[in-house]
Specification:
Layout: H1 2-14, E1 56-61, E2 69-72, E3 78-81, E4 85-88, H2 94-105, E5 114-120, E6 125-131, E7 137-143, H3 150-156, E8 164-173, E9 180-184, H4 186-192, E10 206-211, H5 213-247
Parallel strand pairs: 6-10
Antiparallel strand pairs: 1-2, 1-5, 3-4, 6-7, 8-9, 8-10
Helix pairs in contact: 1-5
């Protein structure tokens, strides 16, 4: 029994993903050309965050407090500006929004001065993928509010359990043609203090807690023994049915079974 199980284990451990590579050339007119894929994705070259739908900004116009407003950026990327109407601001930085609104208001207000301040940012996220014991991958989109590093993320998700390889955490900066993949040794950070890999996370970063070697074994054993568990359950149910037909009563369960 052990030899076939070990053989199955080795086969599953060596099999990777055989699906398409999702490379740029494969998608024709459907290809993603916008970095991560979002319509208002954060440009790689832009250190100051751009804003997007759902973010809330305050617009203050000097000496015209009656025109001040606090409003979210709408799904179409616009906000309402007095005298002007809807103004497209998604994909712009705070400074760019300020300059744009000021320019649009200049024909209506002499010497206009505009201050734009982000009040709530929800459009910036990172995507975290972790391994599940029963197989598969759990995905979460976490809000990114500002100064946030790899160790901040590790602490926020509750650390690294035995399922994850703490020597090889992947941070992937998606790009249609040339994605950047960083391999980070988190273990070396909290054991030896080498924090060179404690990088700032950017909007749309993909963080992958790769499965450890032991996690792969545990997942494989779990999947390999599922048919046996199912067979055991089916035999137990069959025995219960026979008992009920013969006696008219259901069997008493042992403590801890939930019955």
């Amino acid at each position: 029994m052990m030899k076939p199980l070990l053989a199955l284990l080795m086969v599953i451990l060596t099999v990777g993903c055989n699906g398409p590579n999702s490379k740029y050339e494969e998608f024709g007119n459907r290809v993603n050309t916008r970095a991560f894929g979002h319509k208002y994705a954060q440009p790689e070259y832009e250190d100051e965050w751009t804003l997007g739908p759902g973010d809330v900004i305050s617009i203050q116009i000097a000496n015209n407090t009656d025109l001040d407003s606090l409003q979210p950026i709408l799904a179409d990327g616009t906000v309402q500006v007095s005298y002007v109407g809807p103004v497209k601001v998604a994909g712009l930085t705070t400074e760019q929004i300020q300059s744009k609104i000021q320019l649009l208001l200049s024909p209506y207000i002499r010497g206009v001065s505009v201050v734009v301040t982000p009040q709530r940012i929800v459009s910036k996220r990172i995507y975290v993928f972790t391994t599940e014991l029963r197989g598969g991958i759990r995905a979460r989109a976490l809000p990114l509010q500002g100064d946030y590093t790899v160790l901040d993320l590790v602490a926020d998700v509750g650390g690294i359990d035995f399922l994850a390889d703490d020597c090889h955490l992947k941070v992937i900066r998606g790009d249609p043609r040339h994605p950047q993949v960083l391999d980070i040794n988190v273990y070396d950070m909290f054991v030896n203090g080498y924090t060179a890999g404690n990088i700032q996370l950017r909007p749309d970063d993909i963080v992958y807690f790769q499965p450890s070697f032991f996690a792969r074994i545990a997942q494989t054993l779990y999947q390999a023994t599922l048919p046996l568990k199912s067979l055991s359950l089916n035999l137990s149910e069959a025995a219960d049915t026979v008992l009920f037909i013969q006696t008219g009563r259901l069997p008493r369960r042992r403590r801890g079974t939930g019955f």
